[in-house]
Amino acid sequence: MTREVGVVFNAGSWSLKIGVFDVGSGVAKRVGRGTLCFGQSPRFTYQVGEDIQEIDLPIIADGIGIKVIANVIDRLVHADCHMAFVGHRIIHGGLLFNGPTPLNASTMSQIDGLSRLAPREQSQALQVIDAIFSLYPPVVQTASFDTAFHASQCSLATRLAIPTSMHEAGVRRYGFHGLSYKHVSACLHRLAPDIGGGRVVCAHLGNSASLCGMVDGVSIDTSMGFSALDGVPMATRPGAMDPGVLLHLLRSELSDADKLEDFLYHRCGLFGVSGTSGDTQALLEDFRPAAREAIDLFCFRVAGEIGRLAVSIGGVDAIVFTGGIGEHQPEIRRGIERHLLWMGLSLNEAANKTSATVLNAKDSTIAAFVIPTDEEQVIADEALATINRHGYH
């Protein structure tokens, strides 16, 4: 009997995550997963059922090509399966997309046109989409947008203090990690409906990091703005920076935009401060002052952003930690808590050490949770809804 599956590609700056979902019942249930880590020696780790495998792949010199995608799908999708759809995470929907969409010549052209807003991030996903169109032309493809969740924000949250003509041309704050926030918000509503319906700050902390202030699950404000460089410091990105610094760098050692872009994406953040690593776990195990400074700066800036978002949403009823750092690193959560004691946040020591779902102490006036994110599940759910809405079979 043929099994109906959907395949999801989640292209990020550091890796390509793949999810395989059984959709025969009309509901997306995960049955496989894989992660392709970029770098000098690309590795693909994948799991179907209980079996975990790891293989080396050819060096990805010119991007993610057809051979790589064919190899990935061959290992994740069995011969007795029929691919019902392929869904993709697209980082930037600009002003054109505030929800998922089928991919066709028209929408592809629009997405490609938005690449100028996120050239590095958008290109990864477009390469995968092109490869799928070449390998499996009949398969329906859909796009889910990281920016769409933040389309609910008012003009005060999206406005930069620049001329109106530039704002109307698309130079504004967009926000990212929207698929993660959508998943976490839905989980919180199921876990604690009263709290999920209140004022919540979600901290998506990983190599890429941002925070979102929500009221009743709706995005009100977020830390990332026009690009994924904005907000809090990240592994190798600086977060918010005085524009005067950029002018200074352009007039000195980083004399053109390409050099400056490479610097901002790869040589700043925790790596820049520590001088050795952007990995918080490695920094926590490093006793040099520079490593400690990087961790302290990260916690300080994240806590400061929570304070800023509290203004946007009118207070904070709950804080949710998600992402690789948010879900798994008690020391980072404790470091953030130290700056928010005045706000009434108090973590239970035992719960924090074990990364329990509920983190807050009994006397805390702010609830605190760890909720694992699952962007691929959101993409799969949105793909199914899009296919049904547009009448694909």
Automatic annotation (TrEMBL):
Its EC number is 2.7.2.1. One of its GO terms (biological process) is acetyl-CoA biosynthetic process. The record marks H177, R237 as: Transition state stabilizer. The keyword Hydrolase does not apply. Keywords: ATP-binding, Cytoplasm, Kinase, Magnesium, Metal-binding, Nucleotide-binding, Transferase. The active site is at D146 (proton donor/acceptor). ATP binds at K17, G324, I325, G326, E327, H328. Gene3D superfamilies: 3.30.420.40. Belongs to the acetokinase family. Catalyzes the formation of acetyl phosphate from acetate and ATP. Can also catalyze the reverse reaction. This is Acetate kinase. It comes from Rhizobium grahamii. The gene is ackA.
